[in-house]
Design a protein that fits this description.
- With 79 residues, the chain is mainly α.
- The protein has one domain.
- It is built from two helices and no strands.
- The protein is rod-shaped, with a radius of gyration of 30 Å.
């Protein structure tokens, strides 16, 4: 970028300064919404992972339990 082309905000015309500021505010809102959506998505993923972990632990306990052995005996005899 050429430093000669840069104009400080305090030396810009008021209309141009307002226009640039407005566009910056709109872009900021878009980024905030995008970040919020990403955080919500990450929280949902972690929540689901936690549920899956709980289900996995339950399955591991069930696999070693008497109830599983009884269930297998009942289902073996059925055609």
């Amino acid at each position: 970028m050429n430093d000669k082309n840069l104009i400080p905000f305090n030396k810009l015309p008021i209309k141009r300064h307002k226009e640039i500021s407005r566009l910056g505010g709109l872009a900021s809102g878009v980024e905030r919404r995008k970040n919020r959506d990403f955080i919500i998505l990450a929280q949902e993923y972690l929540f689901r992972a936690n549920i899956i972990d709980e289900e996995l632990e339950y399955y591991k306990k069930w696999k070693r339990s008497k109830a599983r052995k009884e269930y297998l005996k009942r289902t073996e005899n059925k055609p």
